[in-house]
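Structure in, sequence out. Go:
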């Protein structure tokens, strides 16, 4: 059973990485994507060049996600890193559903930023 779990962990890690990198291209406030396998993170910044942490944006993202039924958590010295660590046994459809919710929240945050 262990080889299956390892293979699944690699699969979900790849799917997650692909989605996070796609978001990094789309949302200028995602300064970095890092991690390995199913344990990855995005760093939220006010400006990619200066890499100034965007802790308030991360808090807004956590709140918006929670309101839509998705619990995420921040980490890092400035509270601007959103960590991903789902069970390695997660069903791919459940992973995709969670990522869809989070993407909708990222879109909302981007819209709010463009208005301010």
């Amino acid at each position: 059973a262990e080889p299956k779990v390892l293979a699944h962990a690699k699969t979900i890690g790849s799917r997650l990485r692909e989605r996070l990198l796609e978001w990094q291209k789309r949302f200028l406030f995602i300064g970095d994507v890092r991690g390995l396998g199913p344990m990855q993170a995005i760093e939220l910044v006010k400006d990619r060049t200066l890499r100034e942490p965007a802790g308030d944006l991360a808090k807004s993202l956590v709140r918006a996600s929670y309101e839509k039924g998705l619990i995420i958590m921040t980490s890092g010295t400035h509270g601007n890193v959103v960590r991903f660590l789902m069970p390695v046994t997660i069903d791919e459809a459940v992973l995709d559903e969670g990522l869809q919710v989070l993407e909708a929240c990222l879109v909302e945050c981007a819209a709010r930023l463009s208005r301010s």
